[in-house]
Structures are given as C-alpha cells and as structure tokens.
Amino acid sequence: xxxxxxxxxxxxxxxxxxxxxxxxxxxxxxxxxxxxxxxxxxxxxxxxxxxxxxxxxxxxxxxxxxxxxxxxxxxxxxxxxxxxxxxxxxxxxxxxxxxxxxxxxxxxxxxxxxxxxxxxxxxxxxxxxxxxxxxxxxxxxxxxxxxxxxxxxxxxxxxxxxxxxxxxxxxxxxxxxxxxxxxxxxxxxxxxxxxxxxxxxxxxxxxxxxxxxxxxxxxxxxxxxxxxxxxxxxxxxxxxxxxxxxxxxxxxxxxxxxxxxxxxxxxxxxxxxxxxxxxxxxxxxxxxxxxxxxxxxxxxxxxxxxxxxxxxxxxxxxxxxxxxxxxxxx
Length: 330
Ligand SMILES: NC(=O)c1ccc[n+]([C@@H]2O[C@H](COP(=O)([O-])OP(=O)(O)OC[C@H]3O[C@@H](n4cnc5c(N)ncnc54)[C@H](OP(=O)(O)O)[C@@H]3O)[C@@H](O)[C@H]2O)c1
What we know:
Protein name: Aldo/keto reductase
Low-confidence stretches: 1-81
CATH architecture: Alpha-Beta Barrel
Structural class: alpha/beta
Pfam family, one: Aldo_ket_red
Mean pLDDT: 77
Organism: Paracoccus angustae
InterPro entries: AKR, Aldo/ket_reductase_CS, NAD(P)_OxRdtase_dom_sf, NADP_OxRdtase_dom, NTF2-like_dom_sf
CATH class: Alpha Beta
CATH superfamily: NADP-dependent oxidoreductase domain
Number of strands: 8
Number of helices: 14
Radius of gyration: 19 Å
Number of domains: 1
Distance between the termini: 36 Å
Bound molecules: NADP nicotinamide-adenine-dinucleotide phosphate
Helix content: 40-55%
Order of helices and strands: HHEHHEHEHEHEHEHEHHEHHH
Largest sheet: 8 strands, parallel
Strand content: 5-15%
Keywords: NADP, Oxidoreductase, Signal
CATH topology: TIM Barrel
C-alpha cells in the first residue's frame, strides 16, 4: 500500500468535504490556508479511493491504554500492537499525560513515520505565544518525533490568539503539518478565523447520535474547517450500544451498533476517532465501510439528536472554571 494512502486512511472518513475557498482568501495567509485545505482534500480523495477499493484499512485512532492514561510516565507500550495492526491516526494530548507512552509505541511499531498521522493538543495552562512554543517542543520530545501532523488547541479558553500565532509560525516552518482547534463552538471558530491568517484545518468536537451538531457542521464546511468527532459512541452513555433504533438498523445490515454509528458519521463526512482497547472491537470498528445506510436510515438516526452534550457545556462558567483548574505536567 502506498504510504500516502495509509496516511490518507489516518485522517480518514471525510471524502470531498473540505472547501478550498474561504473568507480569508484575500488575506496574506490565503496561500497557507489553501495549502492546508488542499492537503486535507487530497487525503480525503485518496480515502475515497480506498473505500472504492474496499480496502479495510484504518478507521479511527490509537489511544494508549486507559491504564496508561492513569499512570503517566510509567506506561507500558500496549499501543504498539494496535499501531502494527492497522491504526494510523494517533490522537493524544498533553493533558492525557500519555504522550511518552504513545511515543514509545510509535518507536516500537514497525510502521514508518510518514505512514502515521499524529495529533496532539495544547492544554489551557500553556496558552499564549511563548508558552505554546515551549509546550509544543515538550510534546514533540515526549512523542520522540521531529514533526507533528496536527496540533490542536484543546479548549477554547485563555490566550488562544497568542497560541494560534505561535502555531501559525510552527506550521510555516514545517514543524507542524496542520493546525486546528478542539471544543470550539462556531463563534469561537469565527473569532480565530477573523483575527488570524490561517483558518483551523480541523475542529475536534463531541459528535455522536445524541449530539449531532448539524448546523455546526454546515458552518464548519462553509468555513473550510474539517469536523472531527470525539466520543463517537458517546462513551456508551444513554445506553448507546443497546439503543433500540440503532440496534434495529444494525440488525437489518447484520452489523453492530458501533459499525452503524461509524458509518453514519462517515456518510455525514465527519472524521471519527473511536477508541477501544480491545482487539476484537478495534477490528469490528475497522469493518465499518463496506455497507451503506439508506437515506431513510440516516433520517431515522437524525431523530436521536438531543441537541445537547452528553458530557459538558463549554459555555457553562462552572465548566470553564473547572477546566482552568486542571493542571497537568505538560
Ligand atoms: N478533544 C477532546 O476534548 C476530547 C474529549 C474526549 C475524548 N477525546 C478523544 O476522543 C477519543 C474517543 O472518544 P471517547 O473515548 O471519549 O469515546 P468513544 O470512542 O465514544 O467511546 C469509547 C468507549 O466505547 C467502547 N467501545 C469502543 N468500541 C466499541 C465497540 N465496537 N463496541 C462496544 N463498545 C465499544 C470503549 O470500550 P473499550 O475500550 O473497553 O473497548 C470505550 O468505553 C478518546 O480516546 C479521546 O482521546 C477528545
């Protein structure tokens, strides 16, 4: 398999959704913006080829084990077999305190660096121009990498503009291939777009059948930002895996609820990063491509939307206060 196709499988799941035109085309940063958008567009087109070929490679992300997340610095490298299996998109974060473990897993895997797509995230305590540059360097060192594929601002708080300017510069030097945000609602995305040169390539936000964010997706598409789903299974909340509606559709296709949810995201052109630590489920989640949901089934799933987060309201002052108080060894 061509390395760039494996790479395509990493960002994955959203053929032909990134628009190259956007509101900043007249600014000095337009060239960089187009570069990002076109790169992602190319990834998506190659991904579309993979689907056409019915290649089963790569959905989702590798996460170091939950145990690793709980034991910073003492991690095993249980992630390595998953990388050697078929995972190619690795989504981690300074705040998960598992970058060292992920770095070891990558180093011990047999997959060449250019066939893996690595995302990590900047935590709020490192917001601001200088702190972001220093935090990024520490992340890169922990990951044992000399460049990063995607760097996200993890939360929409504190000096995100200072952070963004630092990230723009790191992107321009080639140390970060693409820059983006996470947990940004449309007004926060527009704030970044309006006052900076480079539009975020990605917004990683909670998206699952109970929180579908249809209007937000339209906004992101209009502004050339790729939507990426964290918590695609809502971490099992609201009894997602035994939901009668989803189960009925799954049974009709002789599939599982997890596979239906991932296919539903794929058909909405949303990148998904499902997490499982179990090999059987990792394989199950990979096998989500070779069937189609009908328009009627998509419409049925649309009725499950509650319009609310299953986890957190990022506009709740108590949530902001809580996140601001979380400190990590970043
Ligand atoms: N940017 C952010 O602020 C943010 C916030 C939260 C999460 N994330 C990232 O998004 C990733 C995914 O989200 P998430 O882990 O929160 O939630 P998720 O992927 O919706 O759910 C993960 C849960 O689903 C289970 N699961 C996975 N595949 C399954 C299957 N086929 N059948 C039944 N159960 C299955 C997993 O259990 P097992 O592992 O036991 O299989 C785990 O308990 C995370 O790893 C995290 O890194 C980002």
